[in-house]
Amino acid sequence: MSSTHPIKDQLALLVGEALEVVAPDSPVSLEIERPKNALHGDFSSNAAMQLARPLKQNPRALAQKILVELPASPLIAKAEIAGAGFINFHLTPAAWHGIVRRIRAAGAGYGRGNAGTGRRVLVEFVSANPTGPLHVGHGRQAALGDALCNLFAAQGWDVTREFYYNDAGVQIATLASSVQARARGLKPGDAAWPETAYNGDYIADIAADFVAKKTVRADDREVTASGRIDDLDAIREFAVAYLRHEQDLDLKAFAVKFDHFYLESSLYTSGRVDAAVRKLIANGKTYEQDGALWLRTTEYGDDKDRVMRKSDGSYTYFVPDVAYHIAKWERGFERAINIQGTDHHGTIARVRAGLQAVGLGIAEGYPDYLLHTMVRVMRGGEEVKISKRAGSYVTLRDLIDWTSKDAVRFFLLSRKPDTEYVFDVDLALAKNNDNPVYYVQYAHARICRVFEEWGAGAATLADAELAPLVAVHELALMQRLAEYPETVAAAAQELAPHLLVHYLVALAGDFHAWYNAEKFLVDDTATKHARLALADACRITIVNGLALLGVDAPETM
RNA sequence: CUGCCCGUAGCUCAACUGGAUAGAGCACCAGCCUUCUAAGCUGGGGGUUACAGGUUCGAUUCCUGUCGGGCAGGCCA
């Protein structure tokens, strides 16, 4: 287990050397931990406790032997045995000063790793069908997906962002007939208004532009309206392009950019769906019953077999999904991550079963899924009601307009994806410490302001002596800064961007506490330079962390 | 009824994936004060980690059951 923590790594090496003498043949998982209680030092090792059983020795006695063999190091002020057999390390201030130098030398590279170097991952997210503007749930996906991509890229992965959608299914047919009804002058509530139609006002906008023969250009297509109201195909094409363009604007406002748009219909036209079905049949994983074709998904842990091809000859929705994921695999993505709402969790077993059943050697558990729950919106102390039937719902762009791209991103990333989130619009607008985005961005702005006041650039601090950094707030801040790389690594590995959000809030808290306790621009030059260097390291880390979340770090606020 | 997810301070959430006395922020209480950016700062009270068992040196974390909440359970997507 590599920790990626600069100081833990060095301590692990030291303990490892001692273990080679004390217990050369007993492999222990060398983990250096940070004790919760400050009295237990800066770091601890439980190696002696792990070895007690296999070596049949008292853990405290083992700890003593390890201590004796521990190489001397300028990092360690004191190492002692405590509790059941922990070895606790108390570090010298100089050990922490190395962090500041390391951060300032690495700059934008601080926190980057190489765990994914040479590996390709495809992240599929948003994937909204073009039937309306993006809503806040899509916003959560967009924030999660983009942050995850940034995190993987920071670990060296070759990342592709993909948006998958259907431009030809039942929902799209409904969209087309809704626009057609509007183009004919009908409104929701009229006797002739189709019962299943979408009622939103935006449908009328599309109809008006279609009649006016306008041209719309989306990121992946361009269509000019014919204006012929009886041509449902033409209406469908125009409406799809129109709403794709609307979604592009939503995504642009949210600063999310996709590498590819993948069409479900292309899986049919390219023959991929048929090929996948033939493969499943040839492998004996299917059977006919009641006029339908079934897939034996129970062979792969599903609780019942699933219909692939309905008795009317069309495929159920997960068949193209299987074909799509075969394509992902064949395109060379050893890893695929899908971000979806928890309401779709039923598809996971089916898609994975289909991928195993085709027998192409696709890794078990491919693809990964990151599921998220719904988002509710509070404004003025009341919940903003979302009613799809009435055609009124809070769009992603509403939320961005009411607050800001940064607030929406930060807030939507601040909770574990699988817990329900209530977005508080008033809190997102608050300019005080209750607002976590403000709190973090303000820490950055404060540092920038101090440097402006000082009047020279951070580069002039290259040779700054850091010995004056010994105050408790300074040590706490340096400890926090040292944890940044492993936080980024964990957030990527566990598909958990919220870990980085919590980290940044804590880092900002450490900074503000220090700022409140000490003045930086003091008369003593050595102290001043040391503090400015630490502030600069803090600034670099905040900028790097916010960038991974897709949040800006303004210099003034 | 079945499957998946969740349950931690009054509220919103953490807890480095099995470590030592479970931590922050709101809110509450008590002081302080306006300084490089101000809309505050410092301290304090607050917990049987839903409940009951189990696994082991050690459990918020892993296993079983119960209770409570969310989402699913279509030849819909």
Quick structural gist:
With 557 residues, this protein is of the alpha/beta class.
Note the gap between the termini: 41 Å
Q: In percent terms, what proportion of residues is strand? A: 5-15%
- Considering DSSP H and I runs of 4 or more, what fraction of the residues is helical? 40-55%
Write down the Rg.
29 Å
The oligomeric state of the chains shown is single chain
Low-confidence stretches: none
Fourth-tier CATH superfamily name of one domain: Isoleucyl-tRNA Synthetase, Domain 1
From the 3D structure, determine the CATH topology of one domain: Isoleucyl-tRNA Synthetase, Domain 1
Main sheet makeup: 5 strands, parallel
Number of DSSP helices?
A: 20
Number of strands: 17
Strand order, sheet with most strands: 9-6-5-13-14
Mean pLDDT: 90
Any guess at the CATH architecture of one domain?
Orthogonal Bundle
Give a description of the structure.
The protein is an alpha/beta fold and 557 residues long. Among the domains are: 6-91, Gyrase A, domain 2; 170-256, no CATH class; 432-549, Isoleucyl-tRNA Synthetase, Domain 1 (Orthogonal Bundle). 47% of the residues lie in helices and 14% in strands. The chain contains 20 helices and 17 strands. It has helices spanning 6-22, 47-55, 59-69, 93-106, 136-154, 170-183, 201-211, 232-253, 264-269, 272-282, 318-330, 346-357, 396-402, 405-412, 425-429, 436-454, 472-482, 484-493, 498-517, 525-549, and strands at 32-33, 43-45, 76-82, 86-91, 120-124, 158-165, 215-218, 221-224, 260-263, 286-289, 292-295, 306-309, 335-341, 368-372, 375-379, 382-383, 421-424. The protein has a five-stranded parallel sheet, with helices on both faces. Strands 1-2-4-3 form a four-stranded antiparallel sheet. The longest helix is centred in the C-terminal third of the chain and has 25 residues, at 525-549. It is globular, with a radius of gyration of 29 Å. The protein starts with 5 loop residues before the first helix and ends in an 8-residue tail after the last helix. The mean pLDDT is 90.
